[in-house]
Amino acid sequence: MYLKLVLTFVISLVLVLILMPKYIDYLKKISFNQTVSEYSLKEYKEKAKTPTMGGVLFIIIPVIVTILVDYRVIFDLNTMIVLLSFIGYGLIGFIDDYIIVIKKDNEGLRPKQKFAMQLILAIAFYALYMNKASLDITIPIVDVVIPMSGLYAILVFVMFTGASNAVNLTDGMDGLAAGCSFLAYLAFFILALVKQEGYLATFIIGLLGALVGYLKFNVSPAKIFMGDTGSLALGGALAAIAMVLKEEILLIIIGGVFVWETLCVMIQIGSVKLRGKRVFRYTPIHYSFVLSGLSEKRVVRSFWILSLICALAGLLIGLL
What distances in angstroms separate CA 155 from CA 87, 166, 255, one per listed residue? Predict the structure, then answer.
């Protein structure tokens, strides 16, 4: 079991390290570069020259490696739901990235189109899951069980849509989203082992290896960005893992940084629309710290530390 986990991690890591430089060169050759929003900070305009869609590799590689290491994973419903959500949300992001790069703007998919795709996927995962597991949720520590019944479908949609978009909002600095995602997935990996979800743990450890390899090329100065392809996939799979492990509440705690980023954006938009005033200097909130005088590297390290605290807190609560 543990040998299989180590093997999956190492193979995914090595493949990303070997293939990523070639992939970056290819993206540069076809000018498939990041398109930076007009609302981005001035110092981030130069990042428009950096290739995007790095998420393609850390989606494809761990999925293939997981199946090759143990083909029986395709018969495990929990793991297949996670794999399909990972690929499905990654595909939505890929379409979005492709449109953005081709049109050379940041509009991509229209909100209604993206919403419809996310809704279809959430409904599909709910349909697969509803006949296998309980539709109740449990409040950690106090062990209070709340029967959700049909409302669980709404919860699933909120989880998948919220998590995927939250990681997307956090993906604004070199190594930020990937580092925070790594720590969140690490916590869920341990929970999967404790719950004896071996196939799921195998996929997660493969993804962790791929993320380590990706981070080598994504930390400052980034040579490639994950794009919506990677961020939507990472968020969607996080939600799926929380769902199949029946740790829906822990998703909020373990993914605390992503929740914080999202809430700040929501508060900012609401305040501007209702009061005509900003609450924060800039959102997503990580940019506010740069405007306060902190370097990008320091902000990213601070967010990693905060993400580690959230992951440890969620893990501790989950193990009680």
Answer: 21, 16, 16
Measured CA to CA, the distance from residue 152 to residue 10 in angstroms comes to 37
Rounded distance, CA 230 to CA 97, Å? Answer: 10
User: Do 53 and 97 meet the contact criterion of CB atoms below 8 Å apart?
Assistant: yes
- Spatial neighbors of 83 by CB under 8 A, at least 6 apart, are 63, 66, 73, 203
**Residue 71 exposed, middle or buried by CB count within 10 Å (0-12, 13-18, 19+):** exposed
Q: Residue 58 pLDDT > 60, yes or no?
A: yes
13 to 44, 64, 256, 318: CA distances (angstroms): 29, 13, 26, 28
DSSP structural state of residue 222: P
- Cα–Cα dist 206/237, whole Å: 13
The pTM for the full model equals 0.93
The pLDDT score that the predictor gives to residue 38 is 47
